[in-house]
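User: Let's play a game. I give you a shape written as tokens, and you guess the letters that built it. Ready? Here's round one.
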């Protein structure tokens, strides 16, 4: 019996390439497992140090302003190396890059644990961030290569550790600091890193025959890496003249990079012609907005609880847990829901759910804190946001030809990382403006009402971007010879 195109599309989404039984090969799960370990380690180390800043400041005889660079240096180093991901994979292969990243990450973690001063610890953390910065895009790219159009079924397993890490980071750090020195925050990576390296060496297939060496776009690298660095630094220090100057310079540099890349095409560090692929362009825009509203909310809600409601930082942090729990409870089902309802419908429904349960924050800011309403709202808001991410990631990679996946992973991760600081800075600046413009005893709460209204509007913009996603996955773009 002849099948209709619609039926063929549904089959393509619900069954893996080359396997119509609906079961994913063991090799796919092996890659997913290795990739999840790398993502988890990099994300855990990005958050685990936050709890230990006081101990580090005391033991290393440094001010908190100095020791803060243990965190900031790690995050900024991620931005510096991220543009190199695609070129490195094309040059030496995904397995080699991943193994080098794991080895460098494990070695730099050990050096962090052996640091003798604040300056040495910051330097080693920068090395750790440079190696860890490639683990997340490498994980996504490797899984996309083997999963193909079944990305929705396995993406949740790759992203779950990334969600767990921020929740487990403070718990792990607290336990280590209670029973041992802060040095074990880093030294614990040594046995885990060695085990992960061995698993990656055995389980990942050799892909050197798929490499297509190309000349490194030095001009693009000289523009993009500093541009990202200045943008992230400026966003984090937007309240200072240096921060605002960094933001302004970064915009000029990034526009210059885009002009240079558009002229070079495939020879550019990031081929902007990837954005001609409409599903990829739409998914990148969605992930920019999703990352932005997620980070903006994580910034605004604790400030509201501590400054607007007078809660302690410890209790405020505890009340944020339902947000992560909502994401975690939803993620295991996202693959099946994507197969059932399609990409656009599921992502749109998730965005609507996130809007509906962001609006109650306005009520809490204007009428006072209700813990049950806050907990329920954050749980459902987290569930809605999680329902946007996996379908968007699936659309991002499933329609890209395999040779272009490394560059697509770099582009997608760069844009996604820019979303957080961009919308966080917008909301923080707006909140500061409203608090300074309104006087009186209720000025603080009125400022939060207006800012939560802005956050709700940004959620609405996220919903509108999901309407650009494809209903079902189209065929991947054809691979170009040479």
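Assistant: Ready! My guess for every position:
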């Amino acid at each position: 019996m002849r099948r209709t195109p619609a039926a063929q599309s549904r089959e393509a989404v619900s069954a893996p390439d080359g396997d119509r039984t609906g079961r994913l090969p063991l090799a796919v799960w092996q890659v997913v497992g290795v990739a999840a370990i790398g993502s988890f380690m990099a994300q855990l180390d990005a958050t685990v140090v936050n709890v230990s800043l006081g101990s580090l400041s005391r033991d290393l005889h440094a001010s908190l302003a100095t020791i803060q660079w243990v965190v900031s240096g790690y995050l900024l180093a991620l931005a510096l190396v991220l543009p190199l991901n695609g070129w490195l994979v094309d040059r030496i292969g995904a397995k080699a890059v991943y193994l080098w990243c794991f080895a460098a990450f494990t070695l730099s973690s050990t050096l962090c644990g052996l640091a003798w001063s604040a300056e040495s610890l910051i330097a080693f953390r920068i090395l750790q961030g440079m190696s860890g910065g490639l683990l997340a895009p490498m994980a996504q790219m490797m899984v996309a290569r083997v999963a193909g159009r079944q990305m929705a079924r396995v993406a949740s397993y790759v992203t779950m550790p990334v969600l767990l890490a921020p929740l487990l980071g403070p718990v792990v750090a607290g336990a280590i600091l209670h029973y041992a020195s802060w040095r074990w925050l880093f030294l614990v990576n040594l046995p885990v890193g060695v085990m992960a390296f061995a698993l990656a060496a055995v389980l990942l297939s050799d892909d050197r025959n798929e490499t297509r060496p190309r000349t490194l776009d030095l001009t693009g690298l000289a523009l993009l890496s500093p541009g990202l660095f200045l943008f992230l630094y400026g966003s984090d220090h937007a309240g200072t003249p240096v921060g605002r100057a960094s933001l302004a310079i970064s915009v000029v540099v990034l526009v210059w990079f885009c002009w240079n890349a558009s002229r070079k095409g495939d020879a550019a560090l990031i081929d902007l012609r990837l954005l001609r692929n409409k599903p990829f362009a739409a998914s990148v825009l969605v992930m920019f907005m999703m990352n932005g509203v997620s980070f903006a909310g994580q910034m605004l809600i604790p400030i509201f609880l501590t400054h607007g409601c007078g809660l302690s930082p410890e209790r405020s942090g505890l009340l944020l847990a339902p947000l992560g729990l909502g994401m975690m409870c939803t993620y295991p089902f996202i693959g099946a829901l994507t197969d059932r309802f399609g990409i656009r419908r599921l992502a749109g429904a998730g965005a609507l759910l996130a809007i509906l349960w962001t609006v109650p924050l306005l009520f809490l800011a204007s009428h006072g804190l209700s813990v049950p309403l806050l907990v329920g709202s954050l749980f459902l808001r987290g569930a809605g946001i999680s329902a946007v991410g996996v379908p968007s990631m699936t659309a991002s990679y499933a329609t890209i030809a395999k040779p272009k996946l490394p560059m697509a992973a770099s582009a997608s991760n760069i844009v996604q990382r820019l979303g957080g600081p961009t919308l966080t800075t917008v909301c923080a600046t707006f909140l500061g403006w409203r608090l300074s413009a309104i006087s009186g005893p209720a000025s603080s709460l009125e400022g939060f009402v207006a800012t939560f209204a802005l956050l709700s509007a940004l959620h609405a913009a996220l919903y509108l971007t999901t309407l650009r996603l494809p209903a079902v996955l189209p065929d991947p773009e054809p691979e170009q010879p040479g």
